[in-house]
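hey so i finally got around to running the thing on that chain from the lab meeting. sorry it took forever, my laptop kept dying and i had to restart like 3 times. anyway pasting the input first so we r on the same page abt which one it is
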Amino acid sequence: MWLVCSLLPFAYSCSNKTAATENLLSYFIGKQEEAVVEINKEVNLATWNTYIGKSRFDTLQQIYSGLLRKGSALCEFKSQTDRLFSDCSDYEFLHRLYHSGIIKDKLLKRQSKVLYFMYRDKKAGLDSLEMAKSQIMKLYFDVRQYDHYPKGWRNDEAVFSGYQRKIAMVHQQMHHFLNQCNQFAQSIGYANYFGYLLARHEIDENKHLDYINRIDSVTRHDYKKLKKGADDYLCRQFDKETDELSVFHYNYFFASLRNPSGWQSNYHDRHEFISSVTGYYKCFGMDVSNLIDPRWVSNDSCCLKQALACNIDSYHDVRFYYNGRYDFSGMLNCIHELAHGFCYSSISDSVPYFLREPGLILNESVAIFMENQIFRSQKARKAIGVTATSGAFIDEQVANPWLLFLIRNFLVMAEVEREMFLNPDQNLSALFWTKVEKYLFLEVSEEQKHDEWIKNAPLLMMDGSYQAYLYAVMLAAQYAHCQDRQPDFWTCFTNRYLSQGNSSSWQTHAGAFCKEGIDPSYLPHFYMPQAK
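ok and heres what got predicted. didnt touch it at all, straight out
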């Protein structure tokens, strides 16, 4: 870093200050890239090896929770990363550049922003937050183990008391952690950690609550009809009155929406399954065959049940893993994850390393959009062997009732995610069930109000995922609106839109492609049948 510090005064004294400083910044970013590329690659490989069975599952838990054993390879990679961000002079250099206004090149400016925030967060104590989060995630994995216990385990006093102790520990650590998060955010200029998370996802905090209210407004009437259809169906199915239905009945109903009656296509073998999913993407001019290695597509009961697109080195090594049943539900999972893989592999080689990872909003919007094509395109359904055109429990006025429910569920979790930082000491279970009643219209009795929110990994990761999901589904609906009006949509979508990676904010990028700002009013168009 002494070289950068010695050159910095020279850069500021040059007649062409901008050109000299941009050259200096390019050199600095290049050195950071050299240091971090291999570290990230090895961590991604460790994740991949866990899924394909080369590493134990607890290795994956260590990656996600940050609990790396001393002396392990992953621990060494983390140490290298820590050393990379330990030089305060690096931070001061980026701080001065970021606030100077000298950098005019848009890609350099955005790279400096990415690096500046990485250094700033490290300096402000992000590591201590990650360690606190790791303890919560360890408890999360412990709590999820109870899902594999024999039915009726809650009636076993010894087992249930152990479960309750774990739950109490999660509550205690969550309250402490939420306050710790707010203190961190305030130290770098945010009112609370929620504001910090919105900034990370490049969401305008001043407009955010208005978007939530508008999403609620445009989907409320359709969801009320779906809820009425659920009541009628469940009362017939289980011979009950509406007031006798429990949250478990509704969980059964909403889970069933993802697998509409008559849409259960059976694929006899791996080859047929792979052929169908690649044929689905071919309908839209997309080739995903290079992402699928048949060795990593299976239904092995001994391996992790998961679909995964893994971007190993952010350039040309994108891998896909699937282990599950060869049926319609498995096909949906594959289509979703392959969209992530296609998103990674479509990025132009000219995009700099630190801008190659698509933001969560853009990445998820593409996956949601591609998955929903099943419900919008008869040609796509034919490609995967599905001929039915309606759902099981509701009239044909809603093409994809699962997506409608998903949007309402995102509202629940996004509001929990938002309000837990605004009031960290409140009862989080009470907060969750209040939002369930508000957005899903489910009145749940006290004896049924288990701590379901604790089993929600994206919420416990506290990275603003649900705020991002709300914008992702709005953005996906906007793609669908463009698709119906632009003859060359798919060519532009693949070659022009996806190729840019994270070179600009998602709003700037999407606004240029869709020719308008994000608009929640397109959501009904997205889950309703496509116009004739």
